[in-house]
């Protein structure tokens, strides 16, 4: 994962991921380019997942501090 990718916001990573998926869905991408897109997509997917997990951890901490809940879990996790 490049340092540049780590600096992406969740929204930026999702936008890039959506563009890659769109390109791959057309089926007009040469195999080598498709592999590169797939690899980049996996990196972006991990960035998004990590950011979501971080937010869930922060929310659980905030809610626990206020006695709201003891376990924060989102249905349909990524």
From TrEMBL:
PANTHER family associated with the record: EXODEOXYRIBONUCLEASE 7 SMALL SUBUNIT (PTHR34137)
Recorded family membership: Belongs to the XseB family.
Protein name: Exodeoxyribonuclease 7 small subunit
Cited function: Bidirectionally degrades single-stranded DNA into large acid-insoluble oligonucleotides, which are then degraded further into small acid-soluble oligonucleotides.
Organism: Oceanobacillus indicireducens
Keyword terms: Cytoplasm, Exonuclease, Hydrolase, Nuclease
EC number assigned by the record: 3.1.11.6
Gene Ontology cellular component list: cytosol; exodeoxyribonuclease VII complex
Gene3D superfamilies in UniProt: Exonuclease VII, small subunit
Record's catalysed reaction(s): Exonucleolytic cleavage in either 5'- to 3'- or 3'- to 5'-direction to yield nucleoside 5'-phosphates
Annotated GO MF terms: exodeoxyribonuclease VII activity
EC category: hydrolase
Subcellular location: Cytoplasm
């Amino acid at each position: 994962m490049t340092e540049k990718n780590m600096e992406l916001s969740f929204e930026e990573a999702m936008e890039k991921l959506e563009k890659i998926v769109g390109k791959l869905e057309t089926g007009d991408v040469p195999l080598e380019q498709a592999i590169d897109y797939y690899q980049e997509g996996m990196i972006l997917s991990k960035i998004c997942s990590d950011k979501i997990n971080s937010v869930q951890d922060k929310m659980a901490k905030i809610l626990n501090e206020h006695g709201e809940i003891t376990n924060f879990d989102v249905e349909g996790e990524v």
